[in-house]
Amino acid sequence: MRATPVRATALLLALLAGPLASRVTAQNEPAAVSNSEQSANNDGDAVAGDESFSGQASAEGATLPAAEVKPVVARPAEMAVKAASNSLVKVVNTGKRFVAVGARGHILLSADGKAWRQVPVPVDSLLTSVAFADSQHGWAVGHDAVILGTTDGGESWKLQHFQPDLAKPLFDLLFFDTQHGIAVGAYGLMLETRDAGSTWVPAADNVIAGEERHMNAVARLGDGSVMVIGETGLIGLSTDQGETWTKIASPYESSLFCVLPAGDKGAIIGGLRGNVFFSADVTSGNWSKIDTGTDQSLFGMAALPGNKVAMVGLNATLLVFKAGGGSKQVPITDKNGNKQTDTLSWLLPTRDGSVLLVGDAGVQRLDAAKF
Question: Which terminal CB of the chain, N or C, has fewer other CB atoms within 10 Å?
Fold first, then answer.
């Protein structure tokens, strides 16, 4: 079996690799080993510093021809016995089941959020997000500019887009219906489809993608407008399903990772070092900073019953905020009662009041009593 480093803690030092802790920092650091890098290593291609493979002069003064560049071929994800305990990045509810995606191209399904099973996937790239237009039609995105599609609720997946040589991972996506959707990622990468993913093309030139910033998340606000957030406090808004974009004044100058719609025109946004802001109307430019009481970066948010909002992030951070003020940090422990420190990347409330958490430790389910 091929060794593939996938722990989200390692991804912390990667190229903003998704909602996970991987999206925190240094753009100059290498991302977790990509499909293309694995291919080079496994096939014995040139490595830095090895003159015998670099085309540089040998000890005898001869010059060897440069190694042939081989096209990177997508490889299926390996089926893993403990896939539900491996690093996962996002989980969604399709209306009929839960679907989670993450490292090594893993996609898992569950009917109850307790028992999980892995399904075959045609790529082993890190998957960073997943979205469904209805209970049957869904898509997942990730590294190597991967886009996968399903028409049977996640049971089977087809590769729709794969461009590892682009070196721009995709971080999030949004579908308006079963045909029209957008995907966003690193260095201003924004792709669009109007035929359910049969073709993906670069979005029309716009002020948001044109800045070539990492776009970390995209969400639909209460009034139907679309909001994109990213590095250097990037906030973009579209009122025509991505046809045109407007840059919105931001309350923060560093990376933003998660956005939660609030009311018709409002939103809560979160990012590095526990920074969270709220606006009742994002177009107004007026934002209020929320005191989170933490300096841990936050990667996911969700609305909970009882007018509560929960947030997750680095070092097993799980915060719960109540309407009108007041918050608490919920400790996450393992089966032995030991405090966890694994990064949490996303959370999803369930109908019975419990919450699903995904991150470095895989998928976990917390009872409603903890909130």
Answer: N
pLDDT digits (tens, 9 = 90+) for 319-356: 999 877 778 999 998 878 888 899 999 999 999 999 99
DSSP class of 371: -
Domain ranges of the chain: 83-370
> CA 250 to CA 236: how far, in whole Å?
9
**Chain centroid to CA 104:** 14
Q: What is the pTM of this model?
A: 0.83
- For 83-370, CATH number? 2.130.10.10
- CA separation for the pair 167, 31 (Å, rounded): 10
Q: Collapse the DSSP code of 49 into the 3-class scheme (helix H, G, I; strand E, B; otherwise coil) and give the result.
A: coil
What's the rounded Cα separation, in Å, for the pair 232 and 214? 9
Return all residues near 318 (Cβ < 8 A) that are at least 6 apart.
310, 311, 312, 329, 330, 331, 332, 344, 347, 357
Q: Is 369 exposed, middle or buried (0-12, 13-18, 19+ CB in 10 A)?
A: exposed
